[in-house]
From TrEMBL:
Protein name: DUF938 domain-containing protein
Pfam annotation, one family: DUF938
Origin superkingdom: Bacteria
Length: 200
């Protein structure tokens, strides 16, 4: 039942360093599109004061997460919930942070819209939404590997593809969030930090 994603071993340590700087000391972290569940186990082990709630719309992915969760026996790692970021149904729970790794480019735009909308509604003021993956940036030459990856994604599904950071920023702003940090990561990826702003 357990699935493995080779990219996890490459990015989990750099991501952990960023999470250590951006996550709160306690509370619940909702991971959107948890995939295999390997990230959830790794982060829950390294941040024991945080409660980790993985999620995924795919039943096979959730089965993998369950297998990893049961093997880990981590008390702060919950069983996964079924969650499609592009749908209206989101759990109404008290969150301290949201994390989304490698979903935005392998999903329809409605998933990013739903993610930002939910973050704007569910996160308290100052709480982070942390995104990781490849993005397109203005005035920055896109790596050939990312351009080829973008083309391959669109060949599989025209609704997929690397998103411009500006589009993500505008979507965040419409939902009461603001990008506070951009971090270059291995393999031409980025970590983007958005935080919930106070009411004006």
């Amino acid at each position: 039942m357990k699935r493995n994603a080779p990219a996890v071993a490459r990015n989990r340590e750099p991501l952990t360093a960023i999470l250590a700087e951006e996550l709160p000391d306690s509370g619940m972290v909702l991971e959107v599109a948890s995939g295999t569940g390997e990230h959830a186990v790794y982060f829950a082990e390294r941040f024991p004061e945080l409660h980790w709630q993985p999620s995924d719309p795919d039943a096979g992915a959730r089965a993998s997460i369950v297998a990893w969760q049961k093997e880990s026996e981590l008390a702060n790692l919950a069983l996964p919930i079924a969650l499609d970021a592009g749908e209206e149904e989101w759990p109404e729970c008290a969150l301290s942070a949201m994390l989304c790794i490698n979903m935005v480019h392998i999903s329809r735009w409605a998933a990013s819209e739903g993610l930002m909308k939910a973050a704007g509604r569910l996160l308290p003021q100052g709480a982070p939404l942390i995104l990781y993956g490849p993005y397109l940036e203005p005035d920055v030459e896109t790596a050939r590997s990312n351009l080829e990856f973008d083309a391959s994604l669109k060949a599989r599904n025209m609704e997929w593809g690397l998103r411009p950071i500006g589009a993500m920023d505008r979507l965040a702003e419409r939902n009461g969030l603001e990008r506070t940090r951009r971090v270059a990561m291995p393999a031409n990826n980025l970590t983007l930090i958005y935080r919930k702003q106070g009411t004006k």
